Give the backbone structure.
Amino acid sequence: MKTKHWIAFIALGVIWSSSFLWIKIGVQEIGPMALVAFRMLFGVLTASAVVFYQKLPWPRDWKTWGVYAILGPTSLAIPIFLISWGEQSIDSAVAAILNATVPLFTLIIAHFYLHDDRMTPQKVIGLLVGFAGILILLSEDLLASAHNSVIGQAAVILASLFYAGSAVWARKVTQHVPGAVRGAAPLLTATLFMWLIGPFVEVPFKIPALPITWVAALWLGCLGSGIAMILNYYLLHEIGPTRTTLVTYIFPPGGVILGVIFLNEHLSWQLFAGAALIIASLVVVNWKRRQA
């Protein structure tokens, strides 16, 4: 990857690292459907502001909007709702580990559907090394979370499948869409989807009353969805879905580091060992030999 790709990759990882924490905070007051609905609303407002600032044209054909009518729910609304719902019964650390299966699923799906993102021994080894690093990093939390709901865990794994499949499909069918519009368009359809079904599926559909819940919704929407989706779609088309979804490997160490800085949590050998393996996996997957 080029320097600009690494900058976007790290920025995306830093933004998304805190998402599990803010989701956990948000669902303490309102339901997961309402949280996702507000997140999508703030996300599309942020991404649309970027599109209008850059004076980019929106799609004008029904075929493209038909694609985004599917991508919005499958890449955003449904998986984010599944994670938010799952975190009502499982710890955020467990959710982060299960979400880290996204690049493993993506590797398999992309191999069969994309000619330029094939499975190689190098990629497989890199992904497995990184996943081992995540398991080591969060081993203490896993042992302490043996009571977690199996259904909640299954919901997060299902979300990972949605993320993987939609990432591969988005790379294949949105090549003709300009820049930031690629990230704003699915946010628009996801917002419509959530606000159309949310108030009917989740009863009562609560409006946040606590300031901290509004902060969670704004953070998850403006940064975790609006800016993040623009970065995500940029990377999907620049470096491919397998490398892009490796950003999920940054979530656990990012979350642990945030805990050390802001919550005075202790440093452990697992942090250093896990982070070292995750960094090694990113190097292995992105390593290219020089041509003789």
Q: What stands out?
A: Residues 211-239 form the longest helix (29 residues).
